[in-house]
Amino acid sequence: MDLVDRLYQKIKEDPLSPKVLVTSSYAQGHQLLEQVSGRYGSIFNVEVQTLQGLVRDNTKLILARRRLRFIDEEQLFWVVHQIMMQVAEAEPQCYIDKKSMLNPGIVNKIHQTLVELRMAGVRSEEVRAECFTNKQKGAYLQQLLARYEAYLRENALTDAAGLEEFCVPSGEETLFILLQPADWSKIEWRLIEKIAGKRLCVIDFDAPFYDNEQFSNNSFTMFRATGSLAEVREGLRRMLADPEPLDHTEIILSDYERYVPVIFSQVEALGVECTFSNGLPMTFCTMGRALLAILDWIEAGYPVTKLTEMLRHGCLRIPDMQAAAGDWIRLLERSGIGWGRKRYTAILRSENGDEEQELKKKLYDHIQSWFDRLPEGDGWTPNMLLAWLLDFAQKYVPVHSVDDCTVKSALQDWNQRISAISTEPMSPEWAVRYMKEILNYIRIRVDATPKPGAIHVASIHNGCFSGRCRTWIVGMDEHAWSIPAMQDPLLLDEERTAVSNDLQLVKEKTKKIRSGRDTRLSLVRGEVWLSYASYDPAEKDNSNPAFEMLQMLRLQSGDDTQDFNALATFLGPPCSFMDLMHQGERGPNDELEAWAKYLRNLKGAGIDGGHALAEAYPNLAQGHRASLHRHGEELSNYDGWLNIDVSTTSGTEEVPGQRVISVSQLEKYAACGLQYYFYSILKLRPKEIPTFDRSRWLQADERGMLLHDVFRKYLEEVTESGTKPPQHDRSKLQMIIDQAIENAAQSIPAPSQHVFKKECEEIRRDADIFYRNEARKTDQPCFFELELAGSDGEPMELALPGGIRIKLKGFVDRVDRIGPNQYRIIDYKTGSPKKYASSGYFSGGTQLQHALYAIAVEQWLRETGRDTEARVTEAEYAFPTERGRGEHVRRIQNRREELAGILSRLVESMNRGLFIPAKDTRTCTWCDYKAVCGSHAEWSASKRGAVANADTLGTLLEVEGID
Q1: CA distance 185 to 503
Q2: Phi, psi at 68, each rounded to 5°
Q3: Backbone angles phi, psi at 800, to 5 degrees
Q4: What DSSP designation does 596 have?
Q5: What is the rounded distance in angstroms from the CA atom of residue 364 to the CA atom of residue 371?
Q6: First CA to last CA distance, the chain
Q7: Tally of CA atoms within 13 A in the half-sphere of 814 that contains its CB
Q8: What is the mean pLDDT of the chain?
Q9: What is the pLDDT of residues 598-622, one digit of tens each?
Q10: Residue 817 phi, psi dihedral angles, 5° rounding
């Protein structure tokens, strides 16, 4: 007789008396009773209980009378944490003497040790330091256990071990049938014996599978695969090809957490119903992803990118009837917040009069309400953070499914349980880590027992009780099936023996775990499928089968001499992700397999399916054509050659994508036509989202704007807005710098005080270089941030040699008078002077600003009457910073006819639709559109010299050749 038979025999001995079947879980007991009913018919008067449930029911009344409260293990964890924090603070020389060492792993290990001592009946006075190899460790554990016992007494609490005192015998008629537990402690045996007394009957499991004759009569199927995903897909292929109903199958996972996401993703795609004994991680629903994402947001320093990701994926909903998720995303991305709670407050609260001001105010109110409940510094507690999470979930996370409700309900339950225990303050990093540990316990779609119409997925630790006629054991590799017998560093085996004979040794525990698994396997009847992944893609290493798989091969063959070589031969080659070997036997699992089978003929050889793919996926076909053209010799529209009829344009002064000429964009076109096309024609803009950098306060453009502003304000003050020779004053410059830094710090908080001081010193050194340069000059600064526009604010119409007229708008950093009616324009650069070589006047059209602005300023001075005989004879790029070494590069303005020719050629090329990639591939290194182009500039290099493209590229190449 097997276990089911023996259980039935015990039940029918006295069918009318009440009976309690005590098992390790309710699901296990109910599945066993279902097997009994399926084999022998209806049974009654049998109740399923676990020891924990039985003891709680037994002691509930007496605990209430004595005004004691039971505290579960999850709550005890926080009691242990609190005690460890108190000890670390009170005794700096103890075994674990630093609060920073109290991470979740260490606290959990101490917690488990104290529970194990309690369940072995060990009291604090029995734990002596001399029993330990490290006396300091022994004294520490003794002190923790003593404080733990005192905490329970002082707070009228009891744990599982303390319930023994309050247990009372049950009624004499009730029979307690106990399924032999593998690893019960001394207290657990005392509890059941105290309740059941002489009415306790223990039923042993069957013999291990390798000594079980009935198990050896099963039919065995074995295979291996090239990875866990391939393994699952192969098993599902075989199930779907078999006429056996799917709800006759139980899947046993050797490594539940590793395989359950793979199983779930595949059955979801196939539309196959499944139940999961241990459920799924909460990350498989919106609510779970949202909670972890907002914790990541806190842990990472409140980066905007985390919030935009949540909004984009539907994990965050800001309640407002007039704004959609896209509106909030755009606002956050354009805000310049980047990261840091101070930056949210400073930037969202600022009033700059833009059209999004009302939306910013609403967003500020919401985010500020989050920050109001999150303390600054190290005053965080798990209680506080858990309550904050619950409030966030209720107000800001959309509920899309029952799974979301399950997570929210579990969060409420945890909040009630943890709020009953006081927790010690800690840093936000630790609070978030502890909170993530709590969230890891929350599961969705938990179906502990099988359901009709669904495959049942269980763990190796709780499976094999369903009685289904097909059992597939997944992941039978040696790593998953090995049981480590490593010593417990807190309680070594020799220390366990010295403390108490009732503490289980590690080797005994390991033996009992293996024995329990082997005896559970003996319950399986019918078809047995065994599989493992022979390769681990994550580790990039081969895996070997578990010894148990070899044992089952020996059972099947009846040959005990077979070894792993024989097993490898029996398994054959590993199955792959797609099944190409059984075209006529099985249908495809998905679209990938359908295409794979279509593209192979009956003999298994590949056929050309390009035409079919092109018809099914036109975008893929177009991409293929683009690749062919880009790698070809002749220019095409895939290279940026639009081949526009110039007769449709109105003249060379019209620039595609611009109403007026922007010199910087004209230079951009000369450097890379494709970049110009993306920016000015298609109006594509890269998302400029500040990212957190612990080593930087101001970005390069932010520092450049600050320095420009400092230089302008200083010169305006010392020259009385350009009307008098400069009266230099270092203290005045210092005051302007201090004010500029203060303003910047208010709108852009620094990541740390150290970084702030470092960059302030750099800014002051840059300003000092500027001051020393200015002190040596004798020229008269006249105009600052001069706007090139007409009196009505419209763009200037600029007259160039050759009768060319263009519209221009821009700002000139500074204009100096260097002689009678002679002027120099100056453009500040905060970078390196490297690319502004003195030998490159126009640099292939990439440096036109100095020449165009010189003409524009000269024309403005004359037309406004400021100087009717004005001549701008020089243009200067100034580098008044440490990086620029205080250098300057000057251009004598004597090549205006040549400038007109360059502009004419550039505009002509643009009007013809020529927007090809850069000649110099180094330009691509810092390009915002690199992800779009890839290596397009490298592919186009050969096309510039091709004869077929000579006419098309001639005008542009002429410009590129001009220094």
Answers
A1: 8
A2: -110, 155
A3: -110, 160
A4: H
A5: 10
A6: 98
A7: 26
A8: 89
A9: 666 545 555 667 777 788 888 988 9
A10: -90, 125
- Spatial distance between the Cα atoms of 238 and 256, rounded to a whole number of angstroms: 21
Q: How far is Cα 930 from Cα 938, in angstroms, rounded to an integer?
A: 12
Q: Which of 420, 418, 410, 337 is nearest to 371 (CA)?
A: 337
pLDDT at 742: 92
* pLDDT attached to residue 858: 93
C-alpha distances in Å from residue 399, one per residue of 27, 436, 647: 29, 21, 59
Is residue 489 over pLDDT 50?
yes
Q: Are strands 249-253 and 470-474 parallel, antiparallel or unpaired?
A: parallel
Count CB atoms within 10 A of the CB of residue 791. 7
What are the residues whose beta carbons fall under 8 Å from the beta carbon of 713, sequence distance 6 or more?
736, 740
pLDDT at 600: 65
Q: Which helix (H) or strand (E) holds 805?
A: strand 805-808
776: number of Cβ within 10 Å: 6
pLDDT tens by residue, 80-135 = 999 998 898 888 778 886 766 788 889 999 999 999 999 999 999 999 999 999 99
Contact 658, 651 (CB under 8 A): no
- Please name the residues in contact with 178: beta carbons below 8 A apart, sequence gap of 6 or more: 22, 192, 196, 200, 201, 202, 203
**Residue 452 CB-density burial (10 A; 0-12 exposed, 13-18 middle, 19+ buried):** exposed
Q: Write the pLDDT tens digit of every residue in 207-264.
A: 999 999 999 999 999 999 999 999 999 999 999 989 999 999 999 999 999 999 999 9
Encoded tokens for 549: 């798989």
Partners of residue 157 on adjacent β-strands? 69
Q: What is the 3-state secondary structure (H, E, C) of 268-337?
A: HHHCCCEEECCCEEHHHCHHHHHHHHHHHHHHCCCCHHHHHHHHHCCCCCCCCCCCCHHHHHHHHHHHCC
Q: What is the mean pLDDT of residues 22-46?
A: 94
184/650 Cα distance (integer angstroms): 92
- What pLDDT, on a 0 to 100 scale, did the predictor assign at position 377? 84
Looking at residue 572, the DSSP 8-state letter turns out to be -
Kindly report the CA angle at 793 between 789 and 794, in degrees rounded to 5? 75
Bigger pLDDT: 550 or 831? 550
Contacts 24+ apart (CB under 8 A), 690-695: 690/304, 690/336, 690/337, 690/338, 690/339, 691/303, 691/305, 691/338, 691/339, 692/300, 692/301, 692/303, 692/338, 692/339, 692/340, 692/751, 693/751, 694/751, 694/752, 694/755, 695/751, 695/755
Report the C-alpha gap between 236 and 472 in whole angstroms. Answer: 10
> What's the pLDDT at 652?
42
Is 80 exceeded by the pLDDT of residue 36?
A: yes
The pTM of this model reads: 0.80
Q: How far apart are CA 917 and CA 925, in angstroms?
A: 13
Report d(CA 260, CA 246) in Å as an integer: 18
Residues paired with 845 in a beta bridge = none
Instruction: Return the SS3 of 931.
Output: helix
Q: Six-digit token pair at 542?
A: 């081969």
Cβ(144)–Cβ(117) below 8 Å: no
**In contact, 432 and 295? CB cutoff 8 Å:** yes
Q: What is the pLDDT of residue 125?
A: 94
For residue 764, count CB atoms less than 10 angstroms from its CB and return exposed for 0-12, middle for 13-18, buried for 19 or more: middle
User: Residue 645: which pLDDT band, with cuts at 50, 70 and 90?
Assistant: confident
Q: Which of 906, 936, 913 is nearest to 924 (CA)?
A: 936
What are the b/e assignments for 941-963, b being 16+ CB within 10 Å? Answer: eebbeeeebeebbebbbebbebe
Asked if residue 196 has pLDDT above 80, the reply is yes
Which residue type is seen at 629? H
pLDDT of residue 372: 94
Sign (positive or negative) of CA dihedral 765, 770, 771, 776: positive
Higher per-residue confidence, 459 vs 658: 459
The pair of three-digit structure tokens given for residue 4, joined into one six-digit string: 């089911």
